[in-house]
Amino acid sequence: MSFSKTLITWYLANKRDLPWRKTNNPYQIWLSEIMLQQTRVAQGLPYFLAFTEVFPTVFDLAKADEEKVLKLWQGLGYYSRARNLHGTAKYISEELNGEFPNNYKDLLKLKGIGEYTAAAIASFSFNECVPVVDGNVYRVLSRYFDIETDIASSGAKKEFTQLASELIDSKNPALFNQAIMEFGALQCVPKSPNCDSCPLNNSCLALAKNKINQLPVKIKKLKIKNRFFNYLLVLDSSNKGIINKRTQKGIWHNLYELPLIETEEKEKEEIIEYKIKSLYEDINSITLLESESVIHKLSHQHLHITFWKVRTNTTLENGLDYESLKKHPFPIVLHNFLDNNKY
């Protein structure tokens, strides 16, 4: 049995029951693919269900307020995905009359849609014979064919896409693409795959050469930047708090946060207290809520977050009560803090 037929046979017997696999609606497939970038299926599934309930069509998403979109996305991370999703929904709704482009080349022109997502929509919705190449596909192909190309290198995408193009079932491109991705997600997993139960174990070169744990090769390492955040829960005489919108470029763009003091390193408590006193008048009390920082890990940054409660006797401009404040979209680390610190 050929490589592609073996994969498809395995897939039909082992595939997970997922809602976006029961439709060829490009809107729902687009949603699922954007949500599952850098996100596990178990985490992304409830968000997909929530979005398709609140925004059942691309027109509904296009008409929504951005803050509502970000609030619903809260906790999924990589918030630029949500902003691009919303912007592209507006473009499709207003400029394309709600109709998605029906081919890979034109899908690539949409903001937030790269080669992988365009290939997924083109094959799953329109049965175009174009391969998807994601982390799962890199892993399956590199192991099966013993490919030692660094998958982080500039030429890797072209090499693996060419190989996948030669392997794809031209009559069932959508089925093949689903199969190879699912195979990488469930069978040919990154660590300790069960090769004894693998239907490809008789012809897998990495298994024959005892190289399963060495492939795929990925040499490039991310440089992690450490940042030190001191968030202030500032409450006035009416027990109202204040928040700010992050409008600058970078992480959490257009989300809300508590007043922030960022430092280049972890500062002594007395220094942070001094800085707080320079920001607010008539302070009643300053309380460090936890002595240990919360470490919030992003792809290229580690945020060392400390929370403070500051009470002032003055009335804060634009102060919000707890319920009003909580309606805004926050990064998940702040959302969780506010959940546990009702004022």
TrEMBL record:
Annotated GO MF terms: 4 iron, 4 sulfur cluster binding; 8-oxo-7,8-dihydroguanine DNA N-glycosylase activity; adenine/guanine mispair binding; metal ion binding; oxidized purine DNA binding; purine-specific mismatch base pair DNA N-glycosylase activity
Keywords, ordered alphabetically: 4Fe-4S, DNA damage, DNA repair, Glycosidase, Hydrolase, Iron, Iron-sulfur, Metal-binding
Main EC class the enzyme belongs to: hydrolase
InterPro entries the UniProt entry points to: A/G_AdeGlyc_MutY, DNA_glycosylase, HhH-GPD_domain, HhH_base_excis_C, HhH_motif, MIG/MutY, MutY_C, NUDIX_hydrolase-like_dom_sf
Annotated EC: 3.2.2.31
The UniProt record lists the keyword DNA repair: yes
Biological-process GO terms, alphabetical: base-excision repair; mismatch repair
UniProt keyword Methyltransferase, yes or no: no
Required cofactor(s): [4Fe-4S] cluster
Domain HhH-GPD, residue spans: 35-186
Catalytic activity: Hydrolyzes free adenine bases from 7,8-dihydro-8-oxoguanine:adenine mismatched double-stranded DNA, leaving an apurinic site
Cofactor note: Binds 1 [4Fe-4S] cluster.
Task of the protein: Adenine glycosylase active on G-A mispairs. MutY also corrects error-prone DNA synthesis past GO lesions which are due to the oxidatively damaged form of guanine: 7,8-dihydro-8-oxoguanine (8-oxo-dGTP).
Family of this protein: Belongs to the Nth/MutY family.
Name used for this protein in its record: Adenine DNA glycosylase
